[in-house]
Predict the structure.
Amino acid sequence: HGKSGSSGARRCRDGIDHQRQAVGIGFDIAVFAEMIVHKPLSAARAHLDALRDRGLTAEAIITTVLSSTARHLGVLWEQDRCSFVDVTVGLSRLQQLLRVYGPDFELAPAPELDRGRMLLAVVPGEQHTFGLAVVEEFFRRAGWQVQSEFLPSRAILLGHVRNSWFDVVGLSASGEVAAAGVAAIVEAVRA
């Protein structure tokens, strides 16, 4: 366990601290989800800026507010309480907000923090991309040069791997993607 166990516990504590911080300054997932789907994007930005003014960090915005809202929209979809269009609009706006607040979250990596090049991609056929966008922000912050593919075909994904050097290739798949398809992509990437 050693170092990874303690860093895992720290990440869990940090996540709990971010949730408490967000709740303590008036963040409500249901209200924000409604705002992100039905109000102009500028209203959501103003709300997040107000949370930032009250002390919510950019990291907490990403890990608690945006990620929790994406999960909440998924639950609403599963419960048939919102439409495909609502979820699509909401997740598109969350990704836009991630691009707005992501640079505040990233540290300017020092040369000694250059970890290498990484390709992050959803497996072909996967439609869930928000989590991968959040993971991308964390790796950029940690000093990685990240190239992301959010809706690649098999040919595009394999073309990137064959035509460019990557120290790491990370693939994202939800529980809805067939395991055999994921295994085939992993095998093709390794070849």
